[in-house]
Amino acid sequence: MKNLRYLFFTVLLLSGLSIYAQSEATPGSLLKKVSDMPDTMAARLLFDEANLYYLKGMNDSGVYFFTESLKRYERSGNHRKVADTKLALVKCKIHLQQFDAAQQILFDCLRSGEQYKMPAVQAMAKALISFVFNYRGKPKEALGYCRESDNLFNALKDTAGLLFLYPIFITSLGMNADTVTAMQYFSKGMLLFDEYEKSSLLPDADREHIPLKRMALIFNSVNLMTTNDYLGQALRETEKVKVKIETRANTYEQFELATLTAVIYLKLKEFKKAQLFAEKAVGMIRPESGNHSQLADVYHIISDASDSLGEYRKAYNAMVLFKQYNDSVFNANSLEAIHTVEARYESEKKEQQIQVLNRDKNVQRRLIVISAVGLLGLLLLLIFVVRSKSLQRKLLIKEKESQKIELEQKMNELEQTALRAQMNPHFIFNCMNSVQRYVIHNDIDGVNRYLALFAGLIRQTLENSGKIYVSLKDEMSYLEAYIRVEQMRGDDMFDYEIKVDPNLDTSGIQIPNMLIQPFVENCIRHGVRQDGSERAKLNITVTMEKKLLVVVEDNGPGINSNRGYVGKEFSGHHSMGSSLTEKRIELYNKLHYEKISISVIDKSDENKDDSGTKVCLCFPIEY
Q1: Which residues pair with 13 in a beta bridge?
Q2: Nearest to 14 by CA among 105, 124, 109
Q3: pLDDT exceeds 70 at position 71
Q4: Which pLDDT score is estimated for 363?
Q5: Where are the alpha helices (DSSP H) in 372-421?
Q6: φ and ψ at residue 541, rounded to 5 degrees
Q7: Are 69 and 43 a contacting pair, CB within 8 Å?
Q8: Residue 415 confidence (pLDDT)
Q9: How far is the C-alpha of 354 from the C-alpha of 201, rounded, in Å?
């Protein structure tokens, strides 16, 4: 997943997207101003307006104005401008993670590029398609488009295009396990940067952004480097960037340089240096600046480095700050989307009012003319006007109802995310008691092992708390970490086994986050805490039929005799985790056609000689 983490950083650096953008203009609605202009001139102004929003990271507004610009370019018949505007629109949609729409637009650009002989458009479209395919977990298809884009840019001798492509190309090669070729492209890209920078024909604006573009290529390459030789080369290339950056006071460039250096030292396992450079990067950004996405990434580096140094308190504090800033980015994006919807609604409402007024004036003029012809003509016109207004009211009501339903769905998704961000304080309290027990018994090794397990579990919980879906692989990893903590806390009172069908694509299958854990917790609390000759067992089995089937079972007394259950339903012991899980499943089933189903079975009902509880969860498949 680290490959995907650096994909967005690549587009961010190559496009110059940041709140540090140099433009100070305040974008505003131009629709009224351009209403009487020729289409080409209006489209150009709207494109510039959209670009200002894009440079400031306001991608919802960028999409709106790029779309308005596109409408006018399409009317003007300028195919190249249409294609360029679509490619700019795609970058906004990528940042908004609207990959279906982005992919459709890119394939439209490809067809236009072939039809109207625009190889530069085809090359850029293929590069962006490979980016989308990388993020969507289709590395083979992405690599094919990268090669085609590479051939086109080389044929055009477009060095700037190649330097845009290489970070994406390197990520595609890494995701296809071709690290050797990826490193060859890294070295090739660095040489190409040296030649490009020396070109006397290079515009000053392009020369200004070379350090950022170098860092984008290094970032994506460092993620794949496994030897100190390549990491040393990356460090030397970073020093080249440092020499350029030191000659000008640009806080954003210095921040990204410090972040990149910290990542390289983290890969070199020089954790102290990684920690120092990450802390230096933090000191360059004021939290009130709103640049919380970059702060979240840097605190993640500090947490990893501190964890490796054994500074667990510092690692935990950094991870808390990572989650705090990561959540604030999510909330800011949600608020911006809501404000954008409101602004569009108000704008459209005013336009509709103007249109209605214009129609009324036309109707009045027609009435004056038709009155000369007689009463019959007047009556027919009145009937037409009443009918027209009635239809308009019905359409407006339907539109408002549709918007209301859409907003309610978004709110339901936000509620799911908020529920998933909670942790069980009772569990944390018990874990702290276990640490105290190890300390009382002077078991230092036990304390260290338990804290390492507990810190890893907390980190995984915080990392996944803002996600609606996670991969099956990550969910199984989290469950195993949780069970190991519980097993160690209970003095190894039970055995466990996790079986996953080897034919399943665990990295590609997506399931709702933290949905299985409450049932595992119930099995441990009520199933494996038993007294008797038979050793307590907990089994988790994952198979695939028409849907994904996850079975959690124990060999305890069973739900028929467990006071935590009544019949086949949870009651009695109804933890906060179970309550949240029920609400999340209920919301999920309301929003989706394919439902999540749950069945709780006493194993003695199936086999009188067997005992225990079996929970079967059936998930729709998400990729």
Answers
A1: none
A2: 124
A3: yes
A4: 65
A5: 375-420
A6: -125, 135
A7: yes
A8: 47
A9: 51
